[in-house]
Amino acid sequence: MVLGLLSIPGVIKAFLLCSGTGDCPLISLQELVDLKMLQCKRVVNGECSPGPGMVCAQLARGGMGAALLSDPDKIEKILSTLVKGTHRPVTCKIRILPSLEDTLSLVKRIERTGIAAIAVHGRKREERPQHPVSCEVIKAIAETLSIPVIANGGSHDHIQKHLDIEGFRQATAASSVMVARAAMWNPSIFLKDGLRPLEEVMEKYIKYAVQYDNHYTNTKYCLCQMLREQLESPQGRLLHAAQSSQEICEAFGLGAFYEETMRELDARRADFLAKTPEGTEEPTEDTTGIIKMAVRFDRRVYPPQVTPKMCLLEWCRREKLAQPVYETVQRPLDRMFCSVVTVAEQKYQSTLWDKSKKLAEQTAAIVCLRSQGLPEGRLGEENPSLNKRKREAPDQDPGVPRGQEPAVPGEICKKPFVALENGEESLLEGW
Length: 431
Ligand SMILES: Cc1cc2nc3c(=O)[nH]c(=O)nc-3n(C[C@H](O)[C@H](O)[C@H](O)COP(=O)(O)O)c2cc1C
Fold this sequence. Notes:
The protein is of the alpha/beta class. The protein has helices spanning about 10-20, 35-40, 65-70, 70-85, 100-110, 135-145, 160-170, 180-185, 200-210, 215-225, 235-240, 245-250, 255-275, 310-320, 355-370, 385-390; strands at about 1-5, 25-30, 45, 45-50, 55-60, 90-95, 115-125, 150, 175-180, 285, 290-295, 325-330, 335-345, 345-350, 415.
């Protein structure tokens, strides 16, 4: 069995997308599971496969995990508690210790906790990826234990193509292999038929990234990993300079693909919105007199230059009302934000909390607009006066970018709404 382990959310996405046709039945994710991933189903050859449903304790990573390696009592306690506390199989990943004797003693104690399998990164805690991986120590562990041992650390020196994975498994006498960097450099490592050319893999990856709305910084990171030594090439320089998915596409000659995909996605969104009944959430007024609705701001359903806050400001101006005032609080527990907007002495608020102050303000503006049946600026919605205003020279103050002052936990951030000239918002911030 071949197993992939990677933790950076965008890398995970890249990895899942690109390995879709490969021979990698299990992908291990650590605690950083992207929300978008949670909403996805993995489809393998047309069938839907359930997630691995496994708990993995990682004692191999630099920092706290690896530091634990010198405290076997604590390791044993943690693993025993985990094994007893869940009906799912618990696995564990370690690095090797300075001496073989200590390593074997540790893995035997780990095995006794009842874990289902152990992954061994064949390097010591202080060793870097360029240090040779110790196949002999992994082999000694595999020969000592009766639970499955997963060999790890072979990328570069041992694993450069699919066939090498089995070679590494044999060299370590392990039952399976976990691949990280080699999969990041070229995800087609999992194809039994052999590696696909990098240009082909990168193009396929970029197309997936655009179609599935991957954030460009993740896409860029993954492509940099694939380009590696070629980062100084003209294409590498273009990639390095890219500041959006569109610029990444252009760097790879996929500008037309980007445009076309955006048109398709916009059309699909507009179509979806047209079919989605709006205002299903009835506004309610609570005892404090605040009008509340369970809504959230989704940037994707608005044209690039339009936001609910702009619509609300525009409406207030037309009605000769004072401009909206937003008061935002941050909940210390999970650092989520909630904003209350006051318009004509009435307060409006969403019952749902947001990841950033900017998002919370947009959400509050939606509650105000929606509860009054006003246009919010969503795609497919008519709002001619707003568009007209944008074409004309806007009289908003462009000098103060919104939401740049961080909200201190528990603190109320009170400030009148100031719209940017270009209406630009960093809406993925905090995603
Ligand atoms: C992008 C990336 C993310 C990783 N995340 C984790 C992690 O969350 N936990 C962990 O124990 N190791 C992590 N690793 C280390 C790998 O699992 C692996 O131990 C190491 O890269 C050696 O395997 P390789 O030679 O196949 O790359 C990560 C490695 C990479 C490249």
